[in-house]
Amino acid sequence: MAETTCRVGPNVYSRRRLWGDSGGHCGNPACREYLFPDDLDVDFGELAHVIPASPDGPRGVPFEEISLIDRAHHSNLILLCAKCHTTIDKAPAAYPPEKLHEWKQKRIEEIRVAVATPTFQTRAEARDHLQRELDANRAIYTKYGPVGDPYMDGNPALWRRHARATIIPNNRKILRVLEANRHLLTRNEQETLAVYRLHVEQFENRHILNDFTTGTERFPEVIQRILKEKETDHA
Predict the structure, then answer these.
(1) Residue 68 pLDDT more than 80?
(2) Which of 25, 88, 130, 161 is the most buried (most CB within 10 A)?
(3) How many domains does the chain have?
(4) Where in the sequence is the domain holding 19, given as residue range(s)?
């Protein structure tokens, strides 16, 4: 059955998910306006499409690429204030889908670091919490990972599968825990964390978006030993 231009609205779950993922603030990292006024029982939030409901809208693509249902899914929506919603739709070239998805992901990560990620009193506790993910990533890389240029050696199909299913979510957990426990890191480890953050972002760009233009920062091997050495150099 051919698609029509009849607009499909997001369901209750997608609406709840958007408000939860945004933390009640505008999704534009340069704005961050709180969307609930203190003295009124209303909100200023607007559910903005990344890819519009109609192919003729800003950042529009044909229905053959994204269905009506998928356009109303929370993965294709971002919560914004009215001003930012108007801005992104009036200047779509300055706000491509990749940028809006990046806004969403960074906000989700901020909330998880602030609220959903445990903090620890000792380096040993933090290290124990990360050990399983570090071990799993190391095992996958050792068995299937590329050597030299991407996919010249190793097992490309299995590497891609495990990279997306296991390494990427593990990387995000490791990054969140380290960010939330920066107080336990030495100065050198904090510098390593900055390199690891860059690696994680570029790894996701390569293995999810197939985008190699953002760089190919190698995994900093010292992450395998982070929080293990005796604490001597707190920042």
Answers:
(1) yes
(2) 88
(3) 2
(4) 12-114
3-class SS of residue 29: coil
End residue of a domain, out of 49, 81, 114: 114
Sorted by sequence, the CB contacts under 8 Å of residue 125 that are 6+ apart come out as none
Whether residue 103 is found in the same domain as residue 169? no
The kind and range of the H/E element at 47 are strand 45-49
The verdict on residue 53 lying in a domain is: yes
pTM of the model: 0.60
Residue where one domain finishes, among candidates 114, 141, 161: 114
3-state secondary structure of 149: coil
Interior angle at CA 207, CA 23 and CA 91, nearest 5: 55
Q: What is the 3-state secondary structure (H, E, C) of 50-106?
A: CCCCCCCCCCCCCCCCCCHHHHCCHHHEEEEEHHHHHHHHHCCCCCCHHHHHHHHHH
Q: What tokens appear for 192 in the block?
A: 């390593």
List the one residue out of 37, 201, 206, 8 whose CA is nearest residue 106.
201
Say yes or no: 155 and 207 in one domain: yes
List, for residues 75-103, the tens digit of each pLDDT value. 999 999 999 999 999 999 999 999 999 99
94 plus 182 within the same structural domain: no
How do residues 16-26 score in pLDDT, each as one tens digit? Answer: 999 999 999 99
Q: Taking Cα atoms as reference points, which of 185, 184, 189 lies closest to residue 122?
A: 184
- Report the alpha-carbon distance of residue 156 to residue 138 in Å, rounded: 16
